[in-house]
Amino acid sequence: MTKVNFYDSIDDSKLKFAVIIAKHNGKWVFCKHRERSTWEVPGGHREQGEDILETAKRELYEETGAINFEINPICIYSVTAPDNFDGKETFGKLFFAEIHTFEKDLHSEIEKIAIMNELPLNWTYPEIQPRLLEEARQRGFLPKKDEIKWLFFDVGSTLVDESRVYEDRMKKIAELSGITPQQIYENAISLYRRNKKGDLEIAKQLGIELPKWESQYEKLYTDSEDCLKGLSRNYEIGIIANQPLGTSERLENLGVRKYIDLIIASAEEGVSKPDRRIFEIALERSRCRPENAVMIGDRIDNDIVPAKQLGMKTIWIKQGFGSLWTVMDESEKADIEVNNLSDILNYL
Fold this sequence. Notes:
Blueprint: E1 3-7, E2 15-24, E3 27-33, E4 43-45, H1 52-64, E5 66-80, E6 90-102, E7 110-116, H2 129-138, E8 150-153, E9 160-161, H3 163-177, H4 181-193, H5 198-206, E10 219-220, H6 224-231, E11 236-241, H7 247-253, E12 262-265, H8 266-269, H9 276-286, E13 293-297, H10 300-310, E14 313-317, E15 336-338, H11 341-344
Parallel strand pairs: 2-6, 8-11, 8-13, 11-12, 13-14, 14-15
Antiparallel strand pairs: 1-5, 2-3, 2-4, 3-7, 5-6, 9-10
GO molecular function: metal ion binding; phosphatase activity
Protein name: Nudix hydrolase domain-containing protein
Keywords: Hydrolase, Magnesium, Metal-binding
């Protein structure tokens, strides 16, 4: 019988292995050895004189091709098995890694990697690896789905497509300034890539009043209703948004108000994102702890940063001009990045 135990610390000299639970954009990363038909967590033997963290980094690179990642220790694990090391207890260190980019080629006996939404059924070490993942979950590295109670959405460029409104605004700026719409658009893109609000900055630079926001051009993204409908079966749905008066009515007219349990909008509350108070209002009225809530939005500065500061989980939906934001440091990194609303259903 195989026994798996866990420890907070142990003599470093006893550590013979490093195992790395890895994810990429919220999905699992597993390896397949070229001589096996099963899946396994990246990991391997510690080389003589090697620091165990360096072992983990090396094995992660060799077995998955990961070249840009964050890696953190979880705990010490041990395995005792009658057919392994003469039945003696052997020790390794368990790590968690979030992989951002991969190299094309692998540099080990691994045939290929797979990025999966769900855990595999055919494990290489079925008595060991599921236990490692469960321990990581218990220690808070892999949040349980049932810990999430509330999903809070932004509105603009998250549920609502604002591209036509921005197009109208850019044309009006061009008309008022005598510059071509193409030049205005290109300058705006450049500013958004530098983490500035392009339309607002251009109007300031040109010394003209920012044209009125024409909300009649707003429309739902094609997958908004299906996303809300599906998620509302398992979670409470809320809104935290910088919006003018009448957000509930506008969402009703768009056909999605029926899926939403709570609306916290800046005009009604008298406080706007990124002020953390609007998030605190939402959490208080929903009676939800920050760790049981997810903030979903397109703006790093307005949605992701303040929600993370409060301890909420975060999903950056890379739609609209917000997708051009350049992430500068750890405080701006969302837990999950997606390109559209439909992708969220892969994680929740």
